[in-house]
Amino acid sequence: MSLIVQKYGGTSMGSPERIREVARRIQRFVREGHQLVVVPSAMSGETNRLLALAKELNPEPSARELDVIASTGEQVSIGLLCLALHNLGLKAKSYTGWQVRITTDDAFTKARILSIEDSNVRADLDAGHVVVVAGFQGIDAGGNITTLGRGGSDTTGVAMAAALDADECQIYTDVDGVYTADPRIVPDARRLATITFEEMLEAASLGSKVLQIRSVEFAGKYKVKLRVLSSFTDVSSTDMGTLITFEEDESMEQAIISNVAHNRDEAKITVLGVPDRPGIAFSILGPIADANIDVDMIIQNASTEGLTDFSFTVHRNEYKRAMEILQARKAAIGAKGIVGDDRIAKVSIVGIGMRTHAGIASRMFGALAQEGINIQMISTSEIKTSVVVDEKYMELAVRVLHKTFELEKDPTEERMKA
Ligand code: ASP
Ligand code: MG
């Protein structure tokens, strides 16, 4: 018998019929003798609907009240799911975040989990219940309801698995695993049987929407065995989705590059002709940081005649604000001009094999050059290389890189043939 935490996304909970399907899947695991904690999201579209309602009444809503409102989506889900489980003759009991006592900090709309009191859940499990815990929410030290940021039910699932020391955390979603690239862009993208935790973390931060990045961080910190699966496969399916692994196991599928990620959520700003002297980066990025705007890539050019250009990227939603801040400070910075572009995209290759293989980045640049795709910015880490390109070439870049690194081929099969 093992203890399994299952998280179901909004699409999986999208209608009464879908909820019945989720209940049947849970029943199958219970029949196999497992103990189950289930974390559902709000029904698909519900969180957006609630937030839109809030904004209709007040365009600048209080973050505390937003959380009171948004957290109700998951409360409805846990109750409905328990009813469906009761219909199948299963014992099931629901808990909101505050009833479990999932304690968070007080950063409304993006709170972090600090601790989980698990005694109620354990007692119910021991009494033979399926325990259904609302995703996405908690309570701060002052007793206020908080939410964990969009996609936060993933983090609730992983955090419950960590707190309960579960054998596995299964994330059921509308895709059946993690792919070598977005299959909507690359038709022969392949599902990965495994991906290392580090690669998953990079992929999540580079634009893969499969898991909320905080949930991956959490899994890494507490070594939670995490698996991504589809809730759309048949209930009796034994499909194992994609497992996120921690050890670099020799027998595992091991490619140099595991996936190509893309992201069109960023915009680029260039400050032209600034004097090249100490303090210049600070004078540009300081006010941006003060406005709580995150900066991703940064490039400073070599200077000619004492002047240099300075480029960086921000989230597209914050592009206008960042431009305004810099325009207002143009004279103080001593810049000749400020230009921006919000039609850019970031395309990245990710793989732990980059640590031990030289020349991967140059192969990437060569492949893009061959297609005439201009690279505007580059950034690298140990296990990824990202480039910024014109948005209109994004899909082409993803396809070309997928082909260049032969990601459509299964390395385990290749090895068996050899
Ligand atoms: N319902 C929340 C959202 O839509 C949390 C989640 O689904 O994970 O972001
Ligand atoms: Mg999600």
Describe the structure in your own words.
The protein contains 15 helices and 20 strands. With 418 residues, the chain is of the alpha/beta class. An eight-stranded mixed beta sheet has the order 3-6-2-1-9-11-12-10, with helices on both faces. α1 (16-31) links the parallel β1 and β2 (35-40). α8 packs antiparallel against α9 and α13 packs across α14 (394-404). The longest helix is centred in the first third of the chain and has 16 residues, at 16-31. The mean pLDDT is 93. The structure holds aspartic acid and magnesium ion.
Number of strands: 20
Largest sheet geometry: 8 strands, mixed
Query: Mean pLDDT score, rounded?
Result: 93
Helix count equals 15
Portion in strands: 25-35%
Named once each, the bound ligands are: aspartic acid, magnesium ion
For the terminal residues, how far apart are their CA atoms? 40 Å
Low-confidence stretches: none
Output the structural class.
alpha/beta
From the spread of the alpha carbons, the general shape counts as globular
Q: Strands of the largest sheet, in order across it?
A: 3-6-2-1-9-11-12-10
Fraction in helix: 25-40%
Radius of gyration: 24 Å
Concise description?
The chain is of the alpha/beta class and 418 residues long. Helices cover 36% and strands 25% of the residues. An 8-stranded mixed sheet has the order 3-6-2-1-9-11-12-10, sandwiched between helices. A 4-stranded antiparallel sheet has the order 13-18-20-19, with helices on both faces. A 4-stranded antiparallel sheet has the order 15-16-14-17, with helices on one face.
